[in-house]
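Private note to self, pasted from the team thread so I don't lose it. Backbone tokens:
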């Protein structure tokens, strides 16, 4: 049996829930397929100790309901994973979203029927749906790397992935623990586990910049002040480069007197978290200005780490600040001053294999009871390319993206009509407050769908020319920045064999929104809107 729906959404995280709510309010029939056992996306899977958002709570929340904004009370400036998941579940219950969500349901394949302009979607359990619109809300950091070392099956202890954290409590007391990886997950869990474990060893390949979260409880006065003028805060975020609401100093950092520049960096260090990169307008655009920010952060790291050798290993030195996504931490560097915490630089002494009792590097063998992989994700495209998605002429999305992802606006892909990606490659995505970017795209699509319904249009496809022009524009904007100087997941460098292309749109949230608005005002130039006759037996 095949179930007919207007729209099928893949993923029940923030993007999938927002899409469901919006399209259902328009009168479309919608089903959401979620591979996990519960809703929440990345916040459902990443339940590791210390998991926390790097965007302020009031900004990393839905804007579609003023009532929701007023009733929800955030407890901290940067919300923890449990609080964010409680918020997501509250939204699902408040807006009765669960009735249209199929949990434990993974999309195995989707095939476009050119005769009907509809998608047939099959789940791994054999169930099928037929939908006019296929909306991929799978997230950018949702497919963990499948990291393995020789001998791993011989290890007698426990191996845990930070991105698939177990639901049963993990007891670190009296345990010798290893963390492999020092991206955001590793940085966030290190100080928490260090306080509980008998001994913690952190295996680092590349030292990264990290900014203090400057987290604090939200007082009643702060909560009231935000809620008294929430629309203004939302508009400030929408009109900022990153969606964080911060307006950079319009001067070049290198042109500001040193004492004044240092004072600005100090203020940002103590308050802005991830927004430190926006202290001055050109930190991510000009190498000399970036050098001033990078030097400031290195000095701050040095102040926090007592041991000179450990300090040197923890200090990034060969790439510009911000060209890899910086972490936001709560006591990461000072954790290495504890007598029960050690750092191993695997760029100097690589891991060779697991043993029954632990891990052997080229220099030593270390005994462990628990090993945690915090090695990151197949970013941007990993979850999009997992299922088999077949477009026009039998061409799969994997084939279309063999040389790297291409799209129009990061939303539509030529050859794949009626398929839409939310905050995918080619959009601001991970260079922005991703929830703000999500809502911008969902609202834009909702307006497009309403227009097409009114005009009896049932097929929407990005043109090949528009796709080529958009990819060229994304690359042009990237060349204006420093991002291309550093191998990172922004460029596909996190996975062996992955195409090395710059994936997010670096033109900013405000600039991107204006492009969306101009596209709509032009009658959706860049999209082909067609009416495909529906047969009675379709």
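Design output:
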């Amino acid at each position: 049996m095949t179930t007919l729906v207007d729209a099928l959404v893949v993923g029940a995280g923030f993007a999938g829930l927002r899409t469901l709510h919006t399209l259902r309010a328009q009168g479309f029939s919608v089903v959401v397929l979620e591979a996990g056992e519960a809703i929440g996306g990345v916040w459902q899977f990443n339940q590791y100790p210390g998991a926390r958002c790097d965007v302020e709570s009031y900004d990393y929340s839905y804007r579609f309901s003023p009532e929701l904004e007023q009733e929800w009370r955030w407890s901290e400036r940067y919300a923890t994973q449990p609080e964010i998941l409680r918020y997501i579940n509250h939204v699902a219950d408040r807006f009765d979203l669960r009735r249209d969500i199929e949990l434990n349901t993974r999309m195995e394949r989707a095939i476009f029927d050119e005769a009907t302009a509809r998608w047939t979607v099959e789940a791994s359990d054999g169930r099928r749906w037929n939908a006019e619109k296929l909306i991929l809300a799978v997230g950018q950091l949702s497919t963990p790397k499948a990291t393995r070392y020789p001998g791993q099956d011989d290890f007698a202890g426990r191996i845990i992935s930070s991105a698939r954290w177990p639901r049963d409590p993990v007891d670190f007391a009296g345990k010798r623990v290893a963390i492999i990886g020092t991206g955001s997950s590793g940085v966030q869990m290190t100080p928490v586990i260090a306080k509980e474990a008998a001994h913690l060893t952190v295996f680092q390949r590349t030292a990264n910049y990290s900014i203090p979260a400057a987290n604090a409880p939200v007082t009643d006065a702060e909560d009231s002040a935000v809620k008294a003028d929430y629309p203004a805060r939302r508009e400030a975020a929408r009109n900022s480069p990153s969606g964080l609401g911060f307006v950079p100093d319009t001067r070049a950092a290198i042109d500001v007197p040193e004492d004044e520049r240092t004072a600005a960096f100090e203020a940002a260090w103590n308050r802005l978290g991830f927004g430190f990169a926006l202290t001055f307008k050109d930190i991510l655009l000009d190498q000399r200005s970036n050098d001033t920010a990078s030097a400031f952060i290195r000095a701050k790291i040095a102040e926090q780490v007592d041991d000179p050798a450990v300090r040197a290993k923890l200090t990034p030195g060969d790439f510009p600040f911000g060209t890899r996504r910086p972490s936001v931490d709560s006591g990461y560097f000072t954790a290495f001053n504890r007598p029960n915490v050690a750092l191993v630089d695997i760029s100097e002494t690589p891991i060779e294999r697991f043993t029954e009792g632990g891990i052997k590097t080229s220099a030593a063998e270390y005994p462990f009871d628990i090993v945690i992989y915090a090695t990151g994700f197949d970013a941007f495209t990993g979850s999009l390319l997992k299922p088999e998605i077949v477009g026009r002429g039998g061409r799969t999305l994997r084939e279309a993206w063999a040389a790297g992802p291409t799209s129009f606006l990061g939303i539509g892909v030529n050859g794949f009509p009626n398929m839409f990606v939310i905050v995918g490659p080619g959009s601001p995505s991970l260079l922005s407050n991703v929830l703000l970017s999500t809502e911008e795209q969902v609202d834009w699509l909702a307006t497009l769908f309403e227009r097409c319904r009114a005009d009896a249009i049932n097929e929407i496809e990005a043109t090949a020319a528009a796709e080529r022009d958009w990819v060229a524009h994304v690359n042009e904007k990237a060349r204006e920045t420093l991002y291309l100087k550093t191998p990172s997941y922004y460029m596909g460098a996190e996975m062996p064999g992955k195409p090395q292309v710059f994936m997010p749109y670096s033109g900013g949230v405000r600039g991107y929104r204006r492009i969306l608005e101009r596209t709509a005002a032009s009658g959706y130039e860049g999209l082909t809107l067609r009416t495909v006759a529906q047969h009675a037996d379709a």
